[in-house]
Amino acid sequence: MPIGTTAYKFMSQVILAFISLCFFACTEQLEQTQKAARITDTATEMQAAVAMPDSYSADVAKEILQKGGNAVDAAIAAQFVLAVTLPEAGNIGGGGFMLVYKDKKTDFIDYREQAPLSAHRDMYLDENGDVIPYQSVIGILASGVPGTVAGMWLAHEKHGSLPWKELVQPAVNLAEQGFKVHPKLAGSIERHIARLEKRSFEVNFKDYFAAAKANEVFQQLELADTLKRIRDQGRDGFYKGQTAKIISDFMRQENGLVTEKDLLSYEAKSRTPLSAKWREYQLLTSPPPSSGGIAIIQWLKMYDILTRDQQKLTHNSAAYLHLLAEIGKRVFADRAEYLGDPDFVEVPVASLIADKYLTMRSQTILKDKISVTELIKPGLKESEETTHFSVMDKWGNAVSNTTTINLGYGSSVVVEGAGFLLNDEMDDFSAKPGVANVFGAVGGQANEIQPKKRMLSSMTPSMVLKDGEVVFVTGSPGGTTIISSVYLSILNALEFSMSAENIVNKPRFHHQLLPKDVIRYHDGIDPAVISELEQMGYTMSNRRFGDMHVILNKDGKVDAASEANGRGKSIIF
Ligand code: GLY
Q1: In this structure, which long-range contacts are made by residues 120-126, counting pairs with CB atoms below 8 Å and at least 24 apart in sequence?
Q2: Which of 19, 41, 227, 501 is a good FRET partner for 135, with 20 to 30 A between their CA atoms?
Q3: Strand pairing report for 539-542 and 518-521
Q4: Cα 404 to ligand 1 centre (Å)
Q5: What SS3 state is found at 315?
Q6: In this predicted model, which residue has the larger pLDDT, 433 or 52?
Q7: 409, 459, 486: residue to mutate for ligand 1 pocket, most atoms within 8 A of CB
Q8: 76: CA distance to ligand 1 center in Å?
Q9: Tens of pLDDT along 291-317?
């Protein structure tokens, strides 16, 4: 497999560093995680819980559940609230995946963005065939056709119980009346504006967000009007009529690609979630166009294959990090080769998660030696932004939802007149085989750009079931690191029996084949472990990633937590 070493790759790393600084490293103090007193379970009703990336979404989701809404109603309301109060990732101009477990049935709402009709394979290459820096990440050409409103509408049609209008209204109120800006958000916006100015990007982000000051009320009146149209007309309030006209006129004026026809033809899709047996559990996770579900199943199964006949590894020891990094090399080699939009390419899902294949794949992993990156090939023969939330209602229904506009604040372009940020999801396609995107991920034909195709994602909303009951709901933002956050959270929960608080806050790590032998890790990993791994030949990179919001339902008790580093809030009631 070719390894991208272009200037673009270098710039990608610079951008990656700045995104990390923006959200993960520069998030300030912990917002208090609130936990209401636990109540005794009854035969039919259990505790409900929400684990959300900010307090506004948590409070609204709780209100919806308390007025009798189900987990999907709460998730829809939270998604719209986040479009107002979490502009770095919450959205109506992006997309995402919603995993649903309701009345003991599963569903997966794919509301991923897709390439505009006029997009083409080489659209980000210059006349020499080199990737044009930043074009797929900042500015008008970076956006895929948004999927969020269609996704929420489909989720509501299939699973909602409260009226649509009641679910959108809280977001309208927050946009129209304004909300008090958390100091972490104000700081993040300030830094983002400074970075855009430093590189002289001609985008309108500052015009819309410079007024968001710490602890002051911030109103978004254009956005409020757009949300009102969505509230009153549902899906059509975005993809048809006035909003569609505003979007397509703006695109034409700015030489963007998304047209009225693109909007009209966008469809959210209901897919079958991936399901795999792991130990005594059923893993329920994200199918393509997510790469994450296949990846976490591969990771967890190979972990068991390789540790079956030995003593349990110590959590976050050098042996543990090395083993999981070695597995990651193989997982990401398969990702680069085989994964893409299943409506365009045949993804060999069953083969990739088959026990026999993973046993074979594990055979070359040595406990004391790093595999040579260049020799790790696909195994079959033939921003980091984003945000996540988890909800569980008193009936045991659950939603795991990850949503994104890709990097922090997406393309940094606001649709003038409609007041929302557009995604820069086109960067999740492979602009050129072997050339890394902003997350350092490479890809080939399976993930090349085609009109109406969905770009490969790492978003991995997941659940673990036991005997038909949801025992764990998990997910995270973080680009390709999402996959590590998710499988590590499952190991933390079920291999190491941690509380929700520990699951989200214990230091994590990530390895993805490229860059070569680099393990990215959170503060808190034992320095002796770091030195041991460096002596083995790893380059250790201390950069935080992810923002987990999980719910654990174990031994008759519901436990929930939001990662301390972010501005999330979890509530059990
Ligand atoms: N935009 C990040 C992802 O979908 O993987």
Answers
A1: 120/449, 120/450, 120/451, 121/448, 121/449, 121/450, 122/432, 122/449, 123/449, 124/426, 124/431, 124/432, 124/449, 125/431, 125/432
A2: 227
A3: parallel
A4: 7
A5: coil
A6: 52
A7: 459
A8: 20
A9: 999 999 999 999 999 999 899 999 999
Please give the share of the chain, as a percent, with pLDDT higher than 70.
Answer: 92
Residue 27 tokens read as: 């998030």
Q: Which two tokens stand for residue 150?
A: 């269609």
Specify the residue for token string 């050129």. Answer: 432
pLDDT single digits (tens) 15-52: 443 333 333 333 322 333 333 323 333 346 899 999 99
Strand partners, 282: 277, 465
Distance CA 168, CA 229 (A): 10
Whole-angstrom Cα distance, residue 414 to residue 250?
A: 10
Strand 462-466 vs strand 469-474: parallel, antiparallel, or unpaired? antiparallel
Q: How far apart (Å, rounded) are the C-alpha atoms in residues 231 and 240?
A: 14
Residue with CA closest to ligand 1 atom 2: 479
> Strand 274-278 and strand 179-180: pairing?
unpaired
How far apart are the CA of 457 and the centre of ligand 1, in A?
Answer: 4
Find the residues whose C-beta lies inside 6 A of ligand 1.
Answer: 386, 404, 406, 425, 428, 457-459, 479
Task: Find out whether 479 is annotated in a ligand binding site.
Answer: yes
Rounded Cα distance between 57 and 286, Å, is 23
Give the pLDDT of residue 473.
98
569: β partners: 52
112 annotated to bind ligand: yes
Segment 182-211, tens digit of pLDDT:
999 999 999 999 999 999 999 999 999 999
Q: Ligand 1 pocket check: which of 386, 401, 430, 486 to mutate, most ligand atoms within 8 Å of Cβ?
A: 386
Axis crossing angle, helix 164-177 with helix 148-159, rounded to the nearest 10 = 140
What is the distance between the alpha carbons of residues 118 and 545, in angstroms, rounded to a whole number? 34
Residue pair 359/315 in contact (Cβ under 8 Å)? The answer is no
Q: Which residue has the higher pLDDT, 436 or 290?
A: 290
Tracing tokens 């229904």 back to the chain, one arrives at 397
Is the pTM value of this prediction over 0.70? yes
Please, are residues 49 and 394 in contact by the beta-carbon 8 Å criterion? no
Give the C-alpha distances (Å, rounded to integers) separating 428 from 145, 448, 528: 13, 10, 36
- CA–CA gap between residue 255 and residue 390 (Å, rounded): 38
Distance 485 CA to ligand 1 centre (A): 14
Q: Name the region of 384 (left: φ>0; alpha: ψ -120 to 50; beta: rest).
A: left
pLDDT single digits (tens) 59-75: 999 999 999 999 999 99
Instruction: Round the CA-based radius of gyration of the chain to a whole number and report it.
Output: 22
Residues annotated as catalytic (active site), given as ranges? 386
Percentage, residues of the chain above pLDDT 90: 88
Task: For residues 484 and 309, give the distance between their C-alpha atoms in angstroms, rounded to a whole number.
Answer: 24
**In a mutational test of the pocket of ligand 1, which residue from 406, 411, 429, 437 has the highest number of ligand atoms less than 8 Å from its CB?**
406
